[in-house]
Amino acid sequence: MNGDLSSLLLEHVPAAAALFDRDMRYLAWNRRWLSDYRLDTQNLAGKWHYDVFPELNDHLRDIHRRVLSGEVLSSDLEQFDRADGSTDWVNWEMSPWHNDRGEIGGALLFTHVLREPLLSGPWLRSLHNELNLLVDSTWRHAICLLDREGHVTVWNIGAERLYGWTADETVGKSHELLFTHEDRQAGLPREQLSRAMKEQIVRARSWRLRKDGSRFLADCTISLVVDHNREIVGFGNVVRDTTADAERISLIMAREAQLHSILETVPDAMITINEQGIIESFSATAAVLFGYDVSEVLGRNISMLMPEPIAGWHDQYLSRYRSTGERRIIGKMRRLLGRRKDGSTFPHELYVGEASGGGRRVFTGFIRDITSREVGAAKLREVQSELIHISRVSAVGTMATALAHELNQPLTAIANYVQSCAALVESGSNVPPTQISEALSHAAHEALRAGEIIHRIRDFVSKGELERSIIQVADLVSEACALASFGSMHRKLECVVSLPPDLSPVMVDRVQIQQVLFNLINNAAEATNELGEIQIRAMQVGPIVRITVEDNGPGLPEGGEEEVFEPFISTKTTGMGLGLAICRTIIEAHGGRLWCGNADHGGAAFHFTVPVAERIDE
Prior knowledge:
The two termini are 89 Å apart. Strand 1 (16-21) and strand 2 (26-29) form a beta hairpin. This protein has 20 helices and 22 strands. The chain has 618 residues and is an alpha+beta fold. It has a 5-stranded antiparallel sheet. It has a 5-stranded antiparallel sheet with strand order 7-6-10-9-8, sandwiched between helices. A 5-stranded antiparallel sheet has the order 12-11-15-14-13. It has 5 domains: 3-119, Beta-Lactamase, CATH 3.30.450; 123-245, Beta-Lactamase (2-Layer Sandwich); 267-369, PAS domain (Beta-Lactamase); 384-465, Helix Hairpins (Orthogonal Bundle); 467-618, Histidine kinase-like ATPase, C-terminal domain (Heat Shock Protein 90), CATH 3.30.565.10. This is Sensor protein FixL.
């Protein structure tokens, strides 16, 4: 920067101004700089600024360093104590200047000095009055000034409202009257002033005393007050009543502790995550369930608790929810798999809730381990399957006599046909081959008939898991009627089957539904006389088919519609009362319902529903 040009420019600035290089040595200055700082006899060229003003403290030197680093700084009114004991009050602004290469070449400082006579004039009196009005208008804070010994010198309206004492009652008295007896005995008032002497500002919380003897919890700030000569003149005391705040905080903390205790003791694990899937809280139950310490999961992604491929998809799910707002999991119970620390997986139910507040959103998951429930359910299904199988075997045992009769007929016929053929051949008669062929054909037919009976009985007593397939209702009914007819050789039993031609096929386990129909038909046969009639009907109602087995017997006793399904309750002298209970279990496992009642003509009617097979479009 050209020195002559810079000096010329500075002379036209309406403030004291000086130009420095990067070492804070003078490059240029104006006449006002010399006059304001009483430097008329000095030549400042090349002099170090800190030699000219040795009273510059570390605070001002730090400001210079910051400006030379590129900052622009200023102050409206700052006290500047001179080495000769005088005090200047200065408004200033300091900024860096750049050379033709764009580098910081140094600093430019503008100042405006307000001397003591000006400060003691009308402006200072106006400022003093405005300050008093501001202090007195502060209702929420008690503000008072204390002298060096702790006597009240200023008492605002806020202090009068908070403490109950007027200014006339407090000014000139020790501020110890504001403390409780216990704190005065412990020397707390004197201790706080002593600390303020050393630390400049002291913040404390203690109980304070009102004029009426009541107490309040006070947040208190005590500041050391010094004059322009750094002489201690007293203390500033600002007090705020925080009793209500403390009570609210205490209540909130108590509620938080209670909530934390509840969440830590509930049997469900609880995990909280943010919108990015980062774990923010991990309950004690969750730690036990997943095998992690809390410190091992906080701050990590929730996907660490999921097996693949779900773990890799989870962040995409969160991103999609943030962008679309579409809820697919939130507010719903879902069955998922979790991954423990040791890598093992377990089934659990997950319920996710959402909460928003403070500009952020969190998700809370409640997790219930259902391993034991699913193991128990599998055991129950196994026992039920075994019981159902035993029921079928028992039914076949009951039919043993009838089965012997049914099998004896085709076996006898086979024997007769074969013996006849042998006799014809041995007689040497000229028997036409067609006659022998016809007899053997009849024998083969009877053998197939016996084989079909054995095959049907073997399928009926077979043991296996629930295997559903698409089956026509007519096939189920005809096979069940054929099985039931084995046990009715001494009756003239008639099964009247009435099925709509457009009845949809059903999705069921063939053997188990045959077992249900067999039991219902067999019970109906035992409830009728020698000329009994059993009607079997079916109708489709939306996605289900209802099948009815109705007899013309004496019907059910009044009020016994549910009792007949209770296990170990039977009207038969040799029955165990398990047949209908097992039938209901089978139907409910298919998602249907089994119930009974009396028909219009007085006989018993049993109804059950099974699902229609879903159509799959090509």
